Fold Inosine/uridine-preferring nucleoside hydrolase domain-containing protein.
Amino acid sequence: MTSVGVAANGSSGDGPCYVWLDVDCGVDDALGVMLGVRFNSAIVLGVSCVYGNVAVEQVGRNVARVLHVCERPDVPFYLGASKNILRQERVITDFHGTDGLGDAAAFEHGQHCPEPKPGSAVLHMIEAVNAHPKQVNVIATGPLTNIALACLLDTEFATNVASVVVMGGAVKSEGNTTPSGEYNMVCDPEAAHICLNSFDRMVLLPWELMERHQLDWPVVERWTSKSSPRSEFMRSILQKCIVAEKARGNRFIACDPIAVAVALNPRIATRKSLVHIAVELQGQLTRGQSVVDWQSILKQPSNVELVEEVDLVLFSHMMDEVTD
């Protein structure tokens, strides 16, 4: 298992690094889950599934495959929100294939994948945080619906977590789903609004950061050319993505695993800013846009620690160890 770095809550091995993953398990979420459950000093208390790249039931099946190939059937996972706060239909994307994992053949050895545990993902997340107050690092790589519901159901949830690390937002309004909106925020603007107004501070890794920090293909090929089951699995689920992105002349954008890596090892975030961010809830063209008060015009306290630069070399080393 990978052992590079320190815990998100600042510990360096003196205490446990408790982690809760909240995912909509497309291809890049899968890489993030792999990193989380293989990180040596992290204790993953659970995984909550949320609609997004695919329906929540399929998210559960995808998480099961990842846990199986990572030999972590002990990690509990639960089904969460199937729609956003306003109960609207999810925003459809075909980037991750119809099954969310690139329509890769289910080659996993034995096919004995774990099943989701009964009960609400949101309630189990609240329970885990309350059992370890100020110690659990919540990492969200999908729409923020589950996290927002936890804030609404338990008024102490937001103050009981150690940190909240979110992949989401387009802070320069360079959207990937609408002209100005990033996918996770556009899927549930109300949930993003609740989270931004509940937590004293969230760590946010926006879409533009990922666009600026693309990985060269030889790095990805290093991860996917090994004989380990994890490397084979990664190669299988990334195959369609690699072909499509190379055809567009792009390099590899590793949104969700970079967010997980920053949560597990804050040294990967080499430059950050404190800013106030709100989410547009109304605009005909801008609903879901992340509005950053760069000049402090609103005179509101900062609620986001915005990651602006990351160390891709250190990140790639972490992924190397995951696929060994």
